[in-house]
Design goal:
oxidoreductase; Benzoyl-CoA 2,3-epoxidase subunit BoxB; 475 residues; two-stranded antiparallel sheet; mainly alpha; Benzoyl_CoA_Oase_BoxB; globular; Ribonucleotide Reductase, subunit A; binds fe (ii) ion; Ferritin-like_SF
């Protein structure tokens, strides 16, 4: 089962040529996907040879093949993790029963919506990042951007396969619409608002891959627990690819920090002006970007109290990330102590049925995961002898949904007056000047082995390639 058939027009490990109808339907969708890729994928690099990895099996070890390919010739395909014939439902009211190989009628629309929402984010991020190649800080980074982009394209394939294979005519219609909505389009935008903001500088790209792709990781982890087995198996393999996206984010931000520290040591100061004079990014600015991206990603998990989350859990369509790590998988009479604001904006505890707090449970796991990289960056700062700590802002800061939505909080989670919040906003969030400065740094560096002034070179190459490797050949 694990072998992937690359002789087929659509590489797959789902026996596609034994289902002619499905095969034809997907072959009909394929040229539309390619048109979309050429029109809204990475601009200016369609003819470039890019050192990309392509999945050749779904084994955790040795699953990828590396080589130069032109992106439109990348072999996007359908790869599901192997089926476990003994898998049973791991949580909720149906716990212990066999998992579903077909979509139960009563869960059909919920599952379809979850798949469409997940699927919509994948091409959205490619669209958001389509101009970034033109300002890459190095060929290594350019290649990583394109690797992330082609894999998001493959994640779209993963969701489209499910829609075609299991949801009949409306599944096929939804698959078409995934190519019709466009990031930032006034009339037909992407479903989630974060995915309609352009990402036009590389610091934002690293923030996106660190924070937003990590939200993606947690959504995939929740869907990997689903009782709908084909969805679970698809997500399991997507997670293997996703790990690299977060690596790009964590090492990208880490290299920005490292470069700032080098300049700080040379100049013997941590004054932002001096750092900027040397063409690096000051840690204060970096912190404001962290505040912005972390807070917007927290909203992606949904409201703290959610009856939808409760019913997804009860019915078994969507679990908690790493469900096996929890003791109680039914959560019928347990409670969650949720912090909600009192009249003065101070936190007070509200007892919420555990099932209704599942979004919050997963968000907490996400926050813990976000801390891992932050701790590493802070270790670099400390080692360099500077007294500065990058922090994640409070969960109450700049929220758009949930009980803390719209409250004027500082990043420590203290309520301010609206007036004070507006006045001090430039301390908390990227200013016009910050963005303009970052933008001024965005000049392409395309010589093998060379790296822009604002970021340190990577510690090692992709697939052990040397530092001056030509990851992307532009003709
Ligand atoms: Fe993805
Ligand atoms: Fe991703």
């Amino acid at each position: 089962m694990a072998a992937i058939d690359y002789q087929e027009r659509i590489p797959n490990n789902v026996d596609l040529n034994n289902d002619r109808r499905l095969q034809r339907a997907l072959e009909h969708w394929q040229p539309k996907f390619l048109d979309w890729w050429k029109g809204l994928g990475p601009e200016g690099f369609m003819g470039a040879d890019v050192y990309l990895r392509t999945a050749v099996s779904v084994d955790a070890k040795g699953w990828a093949h590396f080589g130069h390919v032109k992106m439109p010739e990348y072999r996007w395909g359908i790869f599901l993790a192997d089926r476990d014939p003994n898998r049973t439902i791991g949580f909720g009211d149906e716990m212990g029963k066999p998992v579903w190989q077909e979509v139960p009628g009563e869960h059909r629309s919920v599952l379809r919506n979850l798949i469409v929402t997940q699927g919509d984010t994948e091409p959205a991020s490619v669209e958001q990042q389509r101009l970034l190649g033109q300002t890459c800080p190095s060929l290594y980074d350019l290649r990583n951007l394109f690797q992330v982009n082609v894999e998001e394209g493959r994640h779209l394939w993963a969701m489209v396969y499910l829609l075609h294979a299991y949801f009949g005519r409306d599944g096929r219609e939804q698959a078409e619409e995934l190519l019709m909505r466009h990031s930032g389009d006034a009339d037909n935008p992407r479903i989630l608002s974060t995915f309609n903001e352009p990402i036009d500088d590389w610091l934002s790209f690293f923030m996106f891959t660190y924070f937003t792709d990590r939200d993606g990781k947690y959504q995939l982890k929740c869907l990997a627990e689903s009782s709908f087995d084909p969805l679970s198996r698809t997500c399991q393999f997507m997670l293997t690819e996703e790990a690299h996206h977060m690596f790009v984010g964590e090492t990208g931000i880490g290299r920005v920090v490292k470069r700032a520290l080098e300049v700080m040591q040379e100049a013997g100061t941590d004054d932002p002006e001096a750092i900027r004079k040397a063409g690096a990014i000051d840690l204060q600015l970096l912190q404001r970007y962290v505040n912005f991206w972390f807070s917007s990603c927290l909203d992606l998990f949904g409201s703290e109290k959610s009856s939808n989350a409760a019913s997804y859990f009860a019915s078994g369509v969507k679990g908690r990330a790493d469900e096996a790590s929890y003791e109680d998988h039914v959560c019928i009479d347990s409670i969650f102590e949720l912090e909600v604001p009192d009249e003065k904006g101070k936190a007070t505890i509200e007892e919420v049925p555990m099932r209704n707090a599942m979004n919050e449970v997963v968000r907490q796991a996400y926050i813990k995961d976000c801390m891992v990289g932050v701790t590493r960056w802070n270790r670099l700062i400390k080692k360099a002898g500077f007294d500065f700590e990058i922090t994640l802002p409070s969960e109450r800061f700049r929220r758009g949904i949930g009980p803390w939505a719209g409250m004027p909080m500082d990043p420590q989670g203290n309520m301010l007056s609206q007036e004070e919040y507006e006045r001090r906003k430039t301390e908390f969030l990227p200013t016009e000047a910050d963005r303009a400065y970052v933008k001024s740094l965005m000049k392409p560096v395309m010589e093998p082995g060379k790296v822009a002034s604002w970021i340190a070179p990577p510690d090692r190459g992709i697939n052990n390639q040397p530092a001056n490797y030509e990851y992307v050949r532009v003709h």
